[in-house]
Design brief:
82% helix, mainly alpha
Amino acid sequence: MKGFELVKGWARELVDIMLLFIALGVLVQIIFGTDSTSYFGKITGNLMAFVTQLGSNGFVGLIALLIIISIFTKRTSTTS
């Protein structure tokens, strides 16, 4: 069981790092624009497409959003 806890810890840290890079990419693209930030790709465009897809699915999109929020809330409350 210690092995699973170790792998879960690494996965949590990896997700935290990826979320930081996403936040940094969004901030950089907002400040400098999407044309001059080729390193971060099209983070804001992908996020907007994701939000639009959730919004266009109506109730199913709302349920999916609630599931995603619950996963992140559960994950952050267990690590603190």
